[in-house]
Amino acid sequence: MTRPSGPAPEAAEAHVGDGADVLALPGTPLAREVLTFVGNNSSAVVLNHCVRSYLFGRLLAVHHGVELGRDVSGELLFYSCVLHDMGLTEFGNRNQRFEVDGADVAAEFLTVKGLAATEVDAVWEAIALHTSFGIAGRREGLTMMTHGGIGLDFGVGSEFLTDEQASTIHRAYPRLEMAKSLADLITAQVEARPEKGPPYSFPAGLTRQRATPPHHTEMEAMAARGRWGS
User: Fold this and answer.
1) Closest C-alpha to 107, from 93, 135, 86, 89
2) Cα(81)–Cα(54) distance, rounded to whole angstroms?
3) Domain harbouring 159, CATH code
4) Mean pLDDT for each consecutive 10-residue tract of the chain (230 residues)?
5) Residue 61 and residue 68: Cα distance in Å, rounded?
């Protein structure tokens, strides 16, 4: 079983600053179950990326004046960020592009656990659209914060983050060559089952880039150019 390398969940909706509270995770029973579920089915690379995305997403919300618990549910942000790459796991590898497979897995898991249908649908949308640049950022609320938190883990729009905040998160959840590992997972799925990369989709584009010299995807290049590296 893979477990996160950072601290155990703490109180939900904690104040976000420059200390240990930057690493605070929701401590509700369902949040703990989500973390265990992802930890049991993901590599450390995927799990760390997903948790970092949530932690960055919380900081992004503060930066935009979005109050978690009032404007956007911090619990739902945790679910959407931490579950967003379940489509890249063996458990979640089905017959659709990984974003949709991951959204379906998340929706099924949260529904069984008793989450309300409207909340499940919000998480589904946030995960399904998380690679949809130009769309997710227009949806506001949960989808925008999820997309933004994931983008921050690639260094996109990170100027407002302090070095102390970033260092605290990366010490707890190391990057482990995240961009290359994710690109490997996405392209391997499409190469094995072409229906996983429908025309003009994000997975299809990555697979074309990986197949074309110098066999380096734009996602990897974006991370390499970014503030955190791969």
Assistant:
1) 86
2) 5
3) 1.10.3210.10
4) 43 49 96 98 97 98 93 97 98 96 98 97 97 83 95 95 97 96 97 95 95 91 91
5) 7
Neighbours of 209 (CB within 10 A): 18
The per-residue pLDDT for 80 is 98
The predicted pLDDT at position 198 comes to: 95
Cα separation values, 170 from 48, 53, 180, 189, 210, Å: 9, 11, 17, 28, 27
**Domains identified in the chain, total number:** 1
Q: How many CB atoms lie within 10 A of CB 30?
A: 16
Among all chains, which residue has been given the structure tokens 């989500």? Answer: 34
Distance, CA of 1 to CA of 108 (rounded, Å): 21
pLDDT at residue 13, rounded to an integer? 44
213 domain-assigned: no
Structural domain includes residue 89 = yes
Q: Which residues, in sequence order, are bridge partners of residue 68?
A: 72
- Residue 205 inside a domain? The answer is no
- Torsion (CA) 75, 80, 81, 85 in degrees, nearest 10: 150
CB pairs under 8 A, 24+ apart, for 69-76?
69/12, 69/13, 71/141, 72/141, 72/142, 72/145, 73/119, 73/142, 74/12, 74/13, 74/26, 75/12, 75/26, 75/28, 75/30, 75/31, 76/119, 76/122, 76/123, 76/126, 76/142
Which residues span the domain enclosing 102?
A: 20-176
Residue 13 lies in a domain: no
The pLDDT of residue 143 = 95
